[in-house]
Amino acid sequence: MPDIQLTKGDIVLSRRNLLTTGAAAVGAGALTGTFTSPAAEAAAKPTPSTAAGSIPKFAVAMPVPEVLRPVRRSWNTDYYRMTMRTVSTEIVPGHQTEVLTYDGSFPGPTIMAESGRRVVVEQTNALDTPVSVHLHGASVPTSSDGYPMNVIEPGGTRTYTYPNVQPNANLWMHDHAHMEEAEHVYRGMSSMVVLSDAAERKLGLPSGEYDVPLVIRDVDLDDNAGIVFTMDDSVNRTTILVNGKPWPYFTVEARKYRFRVLNSTNLRWLAPFLADASSYTMVGSDGGLLEAPYSTPAVVLSPGERADIVIDFSTYAPGTSVVLQNLAGTGDPAEIMRFDVVAAKTEDHSRVPAALRTLPALPTPTVQRSVVLTMDEDGRPNPMGYINGKTFDMNRIDTTVRFGDTEVWTVSNGNVTTPHNFHMHLVQYRVLERNGKPVDPSEAGLKDVVALLPGEEVKIQMTFDSYRGLYLYHCHLMDHSAMGMMAQMEIV
């Protein structure tokens, strides 16, 4: 098998050598959120729990999250009700695991939304801790953005209104309660919201049952199959789940499929890669479709990033199986799931056109800013995260933005060993350059999360012309944001 390499910025991921070039000192542990030297990593290699060690790979079918149905529809709005509650589910065969959910599903149900048509969701908190619902990637009024202190107390209900004024995008819903978000998301609180529009549907991409979300996460399980949460634990979360099931198989017909891939982990980087080194086609990222499709053997996804990909299984004979691996993983996390190919039921009329969309021209920026992400990496027992040297303070406005301005932010990772990424609420941005060079096609669309290995720097551009109010920006390695790597901007 060839040693496929994938470049993103100044890193090269390969089957033989996970990180080379200037980032070599980071080691394999870099892509799980905290640096571990090769020697320390070997010494700290986890011993799987009895329960996790009993999970057979590719033995359980991958479910497709259900599509949530509106409770009511008007001429311009779809109304939904969801209840956040604890349920038990089978991750390890023969064991029940307690998880936190939207509406009792792990992951939560998918909401199918339409650009230009409002979605109103009444959320009820049946958990025993406060929650705040954030629709990641959406342009929404601050009252519905899921601000960390605008919580729903246990037993309470809050209504969130999503205007959906933006074009097609793969959004996702997750908790954002202050100091609770990392554990809540880790224990299961994630759910996809697919925003579509007429222009996307006209393209002829695979649709219906051939358009499938892949919500990927990792978890550490104890001997009783209970979920173990330890802040910033990058070593022991070695059980990979896809749509809530461990290393599942998914039966596909010998035809094209569209997969909306979400990295919903707290810390782990993913690089989905077909084990036979076949390329697939990337058609979209965080903020929707790319301008043109991009053929690649793998796409690097830091936590929170999405990739919209098309895999053509007609190149495989029925009866063939192909494993989807994680090029950014070692040990158990090196495998994600397996596709089992059967004969196509009908002729495949889907296609991937050469042009997908036209992004608007970038306006001339009016403001330049610099943002530096760092966290303590000296081994202290309770490390903190910082943006421009400060931890999060809800009483401090870190950045004031004038409504309508176009700004360029230079975002850098000031750490020597620890990776980060950068997420902004309210806006989708364009990544102008990485380390002074043009970005590769996977980052050329609309983004709301951008990855940063130690020492890396990116320039991003966005226009603040949708809503005024208070919004967040932060590292989306969720444990890092809960450790203080979060700041506030006010659009005035």
From TrEMBL:
InterPro entries: Cu-oxidase-like_N, Cu-oxidase_C, Cu-oxidase_fam, Cu_oxidase_Cu_BS, Cupredoxin, TAT_signal
EC number assigned by the record: 1.16.3.4
Plastocyanin-like domain segment(s): 89-197, 369-490
Record keyword Metal-binding present: yes
Entry-linked CDD domains: CuRO_3_CueO_FtsP
Highest taxon of source: Bacteria
The keyword Metal-binding is assigned to this record: yes
UniProt keyword terms in alphabetical order: Metal-binding, Oxidoreductase
Membrane-spanning parts: none
Catalytic activity: 4 Cu(+) + O2 + 4 H(+) = 4 Cu(2+) + 2 H2O
Enzyme class, UniProt record, top EC level: oxidoreductase
PANTHER family: BILIRUBIN OXIDASE, CUPREDOXIN SUPERFAMILY PROTEIN
Family assignment from sequence similarity: Belongs to the multicopper oxidase family.
Subunit structure: Monomer.
Designated name of the protein: Multicopper oxidase CueO
Species for this entry: Streptantibioticus silvisoli
